[in-house]
Amino acid sequence: MSYDPAKDGAQTDFQSRMSYGDYLRLDQILSAQRPLSRAHDEMLFIVQHQTSELWMKLALHEIDAARAAVAGDRAPEAAKILARVSRIFEQLNSAWDVLRTLTPVEYGGFREDLAQSSGFQSHQYRLIEYAVGNRNLAMLKPHAHRPDLLAPLEAELARPSLYDEVLRFLARRGLPVPETALNRDLRRTWTTDEGVMAVWETVYRDPATHWAGYELGEKLVDFEDYFRRWRFNHVTTVERIIGFKRGTGGTAGVSYLRRMLEVELFPELWGLRSRL
Q: Rounded to an integer, what distance in angstroms lies between the CA atom of residue 36 and that of residue 257?
């Protein structure tokens, strides 16, 4: 038996009302997939990367909110937001499972059409790294030709990262965070600081006294855990599809991505595990 939802009050006339597609601007989103080849599998490649960029946009939105919450001494709110960021990266990780269905022969059917475009040129990915504390100035170069993309990256480098704000939060709670860490050059990437390690060790040895800092520390570790898995899945997906060929953007491909696996966003939070 057919069912008419209008009989139960569902709205079906959208001549003068906003519809689902109108609200989400689906005409724009669903017309943004424009393969450059006739290869069937290029659509998968485009959709996977476009949806990943949408998830990264949300991640940036949430990371910025978490940073503001920490700066405003609203630690529980920040912890809640960071839990969401981890789940966003869980979704980003799942996307690799779909892309891994692409075989070397299938990818070869459209790889040349990509020219020099490459994922490492993603300005949103770079913004995420800058926002949490991994600030590599060399990575500004791929965006130098686009002032509209370079400006937000430069702006991010001029403000404290999420990790900087967490350390400032700990200092406001009376913990002896070194002045060199609190007043560092914000444009430089974070490097391991023994004084900061000692502060985190104090927090972790007495969670009851330092619960807000302890919870923030664990939420940062959760995030980096998912972030590392994303990087690892990236490496294995690339190796599965192109082996050790050079990347389309000119990087060393798998070798380059493996070096990125060694980068730690919050080194003290991982290093203190050996001391507890």
A: 26
pLDDT in tens, 159-184: 999 999 999 999 999 999 999 999 99
CA distance 43 to 24: 21
State which amino acid sits at residue 93. Answer: N
- Name the strand (E) or helix (H) holding 212: helix 211-242
Residues 6+ apart with CB under 8 A from 273: none
3-state secondary structure of 207: coil
Model confidence pLDDT, tens digit, residues 118-145: 777 899 999 999 999 999 898 899 899 9
CA–CA distance, 178 with 199 (Å, rounded to integer): 9
Q: Take residue 246 and report the two structure tokens written for it.
A: 């050079």
Contact indicator for 110, 42 with CB cutoff of 8 Å: yes
- Tell me the residue length of the chain: 276
**Which pLDDT tens digit goes with each residue over 48-87?**
999 999 999 999 999 999 999 999 999 999 999 999 999 9
Burial of 5 (0-12, 13-18, 19+ CB in 10 A): exposed
Enter the CATH code of domain 38-274. 1.20.58.480
Question: What is the pTM (predicted TM-score) of this model?
Answer: 0.91
Report the C-alpha gap between 242 and 112 in whole angstroms: 13
Side chain identity at 256, as an amino acid letter?
Y
CA angle, 245 then 250 then 254, to 5°: 40
